[in-house]
Design brief:
Number of strands: 27
CATH topology of the largest domain: Aldehyde Oxidoreductase, domain 4
Largest sheet: 7 strands, mixed
Number of domains: 3
CATH superfamily of the largest domain: Aldehyde oxidase/xanthine dehydrogenase, molybdopterin binding domain
CATH architecture of the largest domain: 2-Layer Sandwich
Radius of gyration: 27 Å
């Protein structure tokens, strides 16, 4: 079946059918469904068409990480259908609320997409399979245990009779779901655990999927926004006389903390916005800078009464009696998420009192709640259409500012859909940034070079205090701020971790692998201690990990893959890091060179990861590569500086991404040991900064204690 359907035409057609969107990924499927061909919902997750096509509903968001396909694989594995006939669609947040949150969590972050929902989505597939088999058995009047299933075909083993899923779906949907189902052992998987084709890739290659910025509706208007350049500031006055007379401009909207122009195209809206003369009330933070923020952190580190995130033994006494004490201070900057797709939200207040929202979100349920609250409507009267995301990395999850703004703007134009899209400058300078931080560490070695004490003091903003201010921090500790120190796996008899929460005025949020700066600090300092002890970095770590510890297993795996300890070609040097997080265990080796002019180049990255189970090996390797390129950009180039209360960087000319020629070869060693479910979207970024910086020490003899590398003279000491 071939259907010629442009993205724009599909959007218009979908809007005309019931005034909304019902997107399945394979567009011919969606078009046929829209034409009235009946399909059957066997349960909330599984919809089956008469021709045996299976649509699997996905509650999590897809931002390139592959959850859309992996979750479908888990359902299809237990359903035992034909993968060639599988497509997927996003579950409706409105239906989710109406059906008492039937799809579980809709939040996509923290590498939780698979590991947080694998149990109940697999049970949904298994339950649907049993209902389909029971319906076939009832039609044949035979016991269900006499039937087998393969690729969506049910066979009565004794008689050889066969029925397809599409033939019995209607009868199956009328049955009571089984109260308990048995899940397959991973050794018997036929769809899960395999590098099956991703459901989103073919259409993405052809430009078919609809992202938030692609939404086009009949009569739609466009909005561009400007917020106070100093966080927390407000609009004091404005002169919009020129803008209001410009071609295509429909309205200039003034809110407490932003202004927006609504026009018949985004370009006209943005051009008019630039003609508005605004006076901002910047509040008390107009003089904030890198220097004042660093001073705030140092004041926090000097506080003698900080809450403790970890306390083992007597660190002070152990340090006082240590044969050698090593001290270091590390720091890292604020970082923007820099998603390719800027923040966007389309909202439509319909004449019947219903609100529809189209947005790229990491949490459809949160977007629905914010939209309803902003509109003053019950959630049942709001629908959020989850679009494909042009990058998320945490920016589109906890913070739903773009949804609140989009709904607010559309509220001023009832009856007309309005699409808000931020400019790149607005997106770069009004994010929820990875927290800047400063850490002081002190380690004590005994006469044999064993690490006997480690005292860490961390000063940084609390993400939870910004995104969840109504939930007080337990014991004053933000878990993401102390991660990798309060749960370090190394057997060190005396440990203390102190946390100084110092937020300042820059809003912070969950950036890919929240708290990953601590991996940089910890693993670089471990290397410093190994050097002070006169020991090999690998041997030093292994000595502090018990036999059978999964951190030890991945360390051994990456060391073997990298041939650690063998001679390197002239000019190449190795660096090592081991870190666990987000349910998985990782270890990394970086091979790099540093030229006589001090130019560092990463040639090869080897990452080993144990996530317990692997649903789609190809996707997991792709995520490791994605983590490497994202992490290397931050290590070498990226930072967000504060001057006069403002973020300095405004676009990719001064917030640079790593260019393609600098991308190293990435080798991923998957070593799943089973028994637990870990993530893949974030863990592989944890080791990149320390492994690079440890390799630079091996090459130059210089310790890197702050990022990005562009500020350092890397010529050999």
């Amino acid at each position: 079946m071939t259907i010629t359907l442009s993205r724009r035409d599909f959007m218009k057609a979908s809007a005309a059918i019931g005034g909304g969107l019902a997107l399945e990924f394979w567009f011919p499927v969606a078009a046929k469904a829209a034409g009235g061909v009946s399909s059957t919902e066997v349960n909330a997750w599984v919809v089956i068409h008469p021709d045996d096509r299976v649509v699997i509903r996905i509650a999590r968001s897809e931002m390139g990480q592959g959850s859309y396909t992996a979750l479908a694989q888990l359902v299809a594995e237990e359903l035992d259908c034909d993968w060639a006939k599988v497509s997927a669609e996003f579950a409706s947040p409105n239906e989710h609320i109406r059906r008492k949150r039937i799809w579980g969590s809709m939040s996509t972050g923290g590498s939780m997409g698979i590991r947080g929902s694998q149990d109940y989505v697999r049970k949904a597939g298994a339950s649907a399979r049993e209902m389909l088999v029971a319906a076939a058995a009832a039609q044949w009047q035979v016991p269900a245990n006499e039937c087998s299933v393969d690729k969506g075909v049910i066979t009565h083993v004794l008689s050889g009779r066969k029925l397809r899923y599409g033939q019995v779906a209607g009868a199956a949907a009328k049955l009571t779901p089984p109260s308990d189902v048995k899940l397959r052992d991973s050794k018997d998987w036929k769809i899960a655990g395999k590098s099956m084709h991703r459901l989103d890739i073919p259409d993405k290659v052809l430009g078919k999927p609809v992202f938030g910025v692609d939404v086009a509706l009949p009569g739609m208007l466009h909005a561009s926004i400007a917020q106070c350049p100093v966080f927390g500031g407000k609009v004091k006055s404005l002169d919009a006389r020129i803008a209001e007379k410009m071609r295509g401009v429909k309205k200039v909207l003034r809110e407490e903390n932003f202004i927006a122009v609504i026009a018949d195209s985004w370009w006209r809206a943005d051009q008019a916005l630039n003609k508005i003369v605004v006076e901002w009330d910047v509040g008390a933070h107009g003089n904030a800078s890198n220097e004042t923020i660093a001073a705030m952190f140092r004041e926090g580190l000097a506080d003698p009464k900080l809450p403790q995130a970890r306390k083992l033994g007597d660190t002070d006494a152990a340090l006082a009696s240590a044969a050698k004490v090593v001290e270091a201070e590390y720091q890292s900057p604020y970082l923007n998420h820099a998603t390719m797709e800027p923040q966007t939200c389309t909202a439509w207040f319909k004449p019947d009192g219903f609100l529809e929202v189209w947005t790229s979100t990491q949490n459809g349920e949160a977007s629905l709640a914010v939209a309803a609250e902003t509109a003053g409507l019950p959630q049942e009267k709001v629908e959020v259409h989850k679009m494909m995301l042009g990058g998320g990395f945490g920016r589109r999850g906890g913070s739903q500012d773009f949804v609140r703004q989009g709904v607010t703007i559309a509220k001023s134009m009832p009856g007309v859909p309005v699409k808000l899209m931020w400019s790149r400058q607005e997106d770069m300078q009004h994010g929820f940034y990875r927290p800047a931080s400063m850490v002081r560490m002190k380690g004590g070695l005994d006469a044999q070079g064993k690490l006997v004490a480690l005292h860490t003091r961390i000063a940084c903003p609390s993400i939870l205090a910004v995104l969840m201010p109504e939930a007080p921090l337990k014991d004053g500790i933000d878990f993401s701020a102390v991660r990798s120190f309060n749960d370090a796996p190394y057997e060190i008899p005396n440990q203390q971790v102190d946390y100084a929460r110092r937020n300042g005025h820059v809003p912070v949020g969950f950036w890919r692998a929240p708290g990953q700066q601590n991996a940089f600090y910890r693993e670089c300092f471990i290397d410093e201690l190994a050097s002070a002890a006169g020991k090999d970095p690998l041997d030093f770590r292994l000595a502090m990990l018990r036999a059978g510890d999964k951190n030890r297993l991945v360390l051994e795996a990456v060391a073997k893959a990298a041939a650690w300890g063998s001679p390197m070609p002239p000019g190449l040097h190795r660096g090592l890091a081991s870190i666990d997080g987000f349910g998985s265990y990782t270890a990394m080796v970086v091979e790099l060179s540093v030229s006589a002019k001090g130019v560092a180049k990463v040639h090869r990255v080897i990452v080993a990861i144990d996530s317990g189970y692997v649903v789609n090996p190809d996707t997991c390797r792709a995520q490791a590569e994605s983590n490497v390129v994202y992490g290397l950009s931050a290590v070498f180039q990226q930072e967000n500086n504060v001057r006069n209360g403002r973020i300095v960087e405004s676009n990719f000319h001064n917030f640079r991404l790593m260019p393609l020629p600098d991308m190293p070869k990435v080798e991923t060693v998957l070593v799943p040991t089973g028994g637990f479910w870990g993530g893949h979207g974030e863990p592989a970024i944890l080791g990149i900064a320390p492994a690079v910086c440890n390799a630079i020490f091996a090459a130059t003899g210089k310790r890197i204690r702050s990022l990005p590398l562009k500020h350092h003279d890397l010529r050999k000491a």
